[in-house]
Design goal:
Elements: H1 16-27, E1 36-41, E2 44-49, H2 56-65, H3 88-92
Antiparallel strand pairs: 1-2
C-alpha cells in the first residue's frame, strides 16, 4: 500500500493515460507531496508551489526538473528489514 496525501485527486477509472502518469510519478518518488520552485532574487529566496502535470510527456520533464525533491532522492533513516520466509523444502526438513 502506498500512502498519498489527501490533496491527490484521482482521475476517472477509464482515464488510462492519466493513471499511467500517476504510476510514473509514484515510481519515481513523487507521491503528490508539495513541490516547490525556488527563485533567487538578490537577497530573498522565493518559493512557489508547482502543480503536477497531467500528461506523461510533461511528467517526464517534471521528474527530471524536480528529482531532488522526490522521496527516492532522500535517504531513509529507517533500517531495511529483510525477513526470509521459509520455503516448503525448509519446513519439510
Amino acid at each position: 500500500m502506498i500512502l498519498i496525501p489527501h490533496r491527490f485527486r484521482p482521475p476517472k477509472r477509464t482515464d488510462y493515460k492519466r493513471w499511467k502518469t500517476v504510476g510514473f510519478f509514484i515510481d519515481n518518488g513523487f507521491k503528490y507531496q508539495h513541490i516547490y520552485k525556488y527563485t533567487d532574487l538578490n537577497i530573498k529566496l522565493l518559493t512557489e508551489n508547482v502543480e503536477y502535470p497531467e500528461t506523461l510527456k510533461e511528467a517526464k520533464e517534471f521528474v527530471e526538473t524536480f528529482k531532488a525533491q522526490s522521496y527516492k532522492s532522500k535517504k531513509s533513516s529507517l533500517p531495511k528489514m529483510h525477513k526470509r520466509h521459509p520455503s516448503a523444502d525448509d519446513l519439510a526438513r
